[in-house]
Amino acid sequence: MAVLKVIELLSDSDKSWEEATAKAVAKASESLKHIRSAYVQNQTVTVKDGKVDKYRVNLKVTFEVDD
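The chain above was modelled as a monomer; its predicted structure follows.
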C-alpha cells in the first residue's frame, strides 16, 4: 500500500499559467521524489498598466512517501 502526501504550492510566470505550473513542479521535484500529480486549484493574474503582468497558479502536488 502506498502512502501519498499533498502539499500546496504557489508559482508565477511572465508568460502563461502552463509555465507557472511547470516551474512549480520542476522546483518541487528538486526535493521531492515520486511526484504523482499536480492539481491546479486556482489561476489568477496580476495587472500592471492595464496589461497582464504575471500569471499565477495555486496547485496541489501529490507525491508518494517513502517507507
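Helices lie at 17-29.
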